């Protein structure tokens, strides 16, 4: 049995929570780098990064200082007025994405996808959006319509009309589907929630060519893969792609909620009132994002992710377990596909001080902060090897007890 107890904090949350989340039986109260601590003082290696938010690691004093200083100057300022922090962030962000010179700011990944869908339909005058099987783009109605998993979709149907899904990494299927009615194709360079599936370079370049040929826009969803996660600042840059719309969020503002859509020249000029966001581009989030970008570049975290990701992948491949079907990923976005459900093994790893994510029923997903040390990655691999060595029945029982 797990030795974790339900604290006062957990009792309060359990009483008042919406019920939308499967709560883990730990209360996290502090973080530093790739470490997290619970209220009992126990530490964990964080391989979740708060679902991909903490690329810079936890407890970054530079982010805290930027937030504190800006909070004393000006917290909110809608885009109906100009603002110094917003203007500076626009300039710095677009410098990282040549060919994408305009920015719409919002508050989350799903909001950025919603905006990109609207901008695509407005720009082309077309209605159809093509998404991919296994793709995940968010839970609001437009983003949900582009998301594949029926678990998320079915309770809310009918969804937004005009969406179709085609197999990922299958250019022939896209070629048959894309037409003069297609406003945009939306995809992830590495599918995250769908199982950590990287796109084939030829497929990704072929998608771009088809979009250009048929007059459709290409939306690249980098909500999870952006800002160094895959070993480049953005995953599309591995393959010399040029998206028409780039959706980003999660780690953009160093932990504060923020999203954005960056737009290229094929996106029509947008008129006032077509879309908007009360909090989008607020000075507080912009100041945090500017500090985050400085850290990313000064510490060359994309290069760190490439190097550490290759190291971790090789370390995982040294695990000799009949339960492992495949190991795949890019940079520090890595999935270990098992031949059975991963929930019991995630629970066992958590009990041993390692936090990781699932990506579907049978994939363990590792999204550690890019500042994680190789010694910590070694411990993660050792912990995975240890729990995979347990007998399946024992693992299932231990996992159930640890939830």
TrEMBL record:
N6-(pyridoxal phosphate)lysine modification, residue list: 250
Domain of life assignment: Bacteria
Chain positions recorded as N(2)-acetyl-L-ornithine binding sites: 139, 277
Broad EC category: transferase
Primary localisation category: cytoplasm
Entry's cofactor comment: Binds 1 pyridoxal phosphate per subunit.
InterPro entries linked: AcOrn/SuccOrn_fam (IPR004636), Aminotrans_3 (IPR005814), Aminotrans_3_PPA_site (IPR049704), Class-III_PLP-dep_AT (IPR050103), LysJ (IPR037537), PyrdxlP-dep_Trfase (IPR015424), PyrdxlP-dep_Trfase_major (IPR015421), PyrdxlP-dep_Trfase_small (IPR015422)
Cofactor: pyridoxal 5'-phosphate
Pathway membership: Amino-acid biosynthesis; L-lysine biosynthesis via AAA pathway; L-lysine from L-alpha-aminoadipate (Thermus route): step 4/5; Amino-acid biosynthesis; L-arginine biosynthesis; N(2)-acetyl-L-ornithine from L-glutamate: step 4/4
TM ranges: none
Binding, substrate: 139, 277
Cited Pfam families: Aminotran_3
Entry's Gene Ontology molecular function annotations: transaminase activity
Subcellular location, record wording: Cytoplasm
Binding, pyridoxal 5'-phosphate: 109-110, 136, 221-224, 278
Annotated EC: 2.6.1.11, 2.6.1.118
Quaternary structure (record): Homodimer.
PANTHER family for the chain: ACETYLORNITHINE AMINOTRANSFERASE, MITOCHONDRIAL (PTHR11986:SF79), AMINOTRANSFERASE CLASS III (PTHR11986)
Note: May also have succinyldiaminopimelate aminotransferase activity, thus carrying out the corresponding step in lysine biosynthesis.
Family, as annotated: Belongs to the class-III pyridoxal-phosphate-dependent aminotransferase family. ArgD subfamily.
Function: Catalyzes the transfer of the amino group of L-glutamate to [LysW]-aminoadipate 6-semialdehyde, generating [LysW]-gamma-L-lysine.
Protein name as it appears in the record: Multifunctional fusion protein
Taxonomic source organism: Thermanaerothrix solaris
Lineage, uppermost ranks: Bacteria, Bacillati, Chloroflexota, Anaerolineae, Anaerolineales
């Amino acid at each position: 049995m797990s030795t974790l107890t339900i604290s006062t904090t957990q009792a309060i949350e359990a009483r008042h929570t919406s019920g939308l989340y499967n709560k883990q039986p730990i209360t996290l109260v502090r973080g530093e780098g790739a470490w997290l601590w619970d209220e009992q003082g126990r530490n964990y290696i964080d391989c979740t990064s708060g679902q991909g938010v903490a690329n810079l690691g936890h407890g970054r004093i530079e982010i805290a200082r930027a937030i504190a200083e800006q909070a004393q100057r000006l917290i909110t300022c809608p885009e109906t007025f100009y603002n110094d922090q917003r203007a500076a962030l626009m300039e710095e962000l677009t410098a990282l994405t040549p060919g994408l010179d305009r920015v719409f700011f919002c508050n989350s990944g799903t909001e950025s996808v919603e905006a990109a869908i609207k901008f695509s339909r407005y720009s082309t005058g077309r209605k159809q959006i093509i998404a991919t099987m296994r793709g995940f783009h968010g839970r609001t109605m437009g983003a949900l319509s582009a998301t594949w998993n029926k678990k998320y979709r079915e309770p809310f149907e009918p969804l937004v009309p005009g969406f179709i899904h085609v197999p990922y990494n299958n250019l022939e299927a896209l070629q048959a589907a894309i037409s003069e009615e297609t406003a945009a194709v939306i995809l992830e360079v590495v599918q995250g929630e769908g199982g950590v599936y990287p796109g084939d370079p030829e497929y990704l370049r072929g998608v771009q060519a088809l979009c250009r040929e048929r007059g459709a826009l290409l939306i690249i969803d980098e909500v999870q893969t952006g800002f160094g996660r895959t070993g480049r600042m953005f995953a599309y840059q591995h393959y010399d792609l040029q998206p028409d719309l780039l959706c980003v969020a999660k780690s953009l503002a160093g932990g504060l909620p923020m999203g954005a859509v960056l737009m290229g020249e094929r996106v029509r000029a947008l008129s006032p009132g077509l879309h908007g966001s009360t909090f989008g581009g607020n000075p507080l989030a912009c100041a945090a994002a500017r500090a985050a970008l400085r850290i990313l570049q000064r510490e060359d975290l994309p290069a760190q992710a490439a190097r550490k990701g290759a190291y971790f992948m090789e370390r995982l491949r040294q695990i000799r377990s009949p339960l492992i079907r495949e190991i795949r990923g890019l940079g520090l976005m890595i999935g270990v596909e098992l031949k059975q459900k991963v929930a019991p093994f995630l629970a066992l790893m958590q009990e041993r001080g390692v936090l990781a994510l699932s990506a579907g029923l049978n994939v363990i997903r590792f999204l550690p902060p890019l500042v994680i040390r190789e010694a910590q990655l070694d411990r993660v691999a050792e912990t995975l090897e240890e729990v995979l060595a347990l007998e399946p029945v024992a693992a299932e029982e231990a996992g159930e007890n640890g939830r």
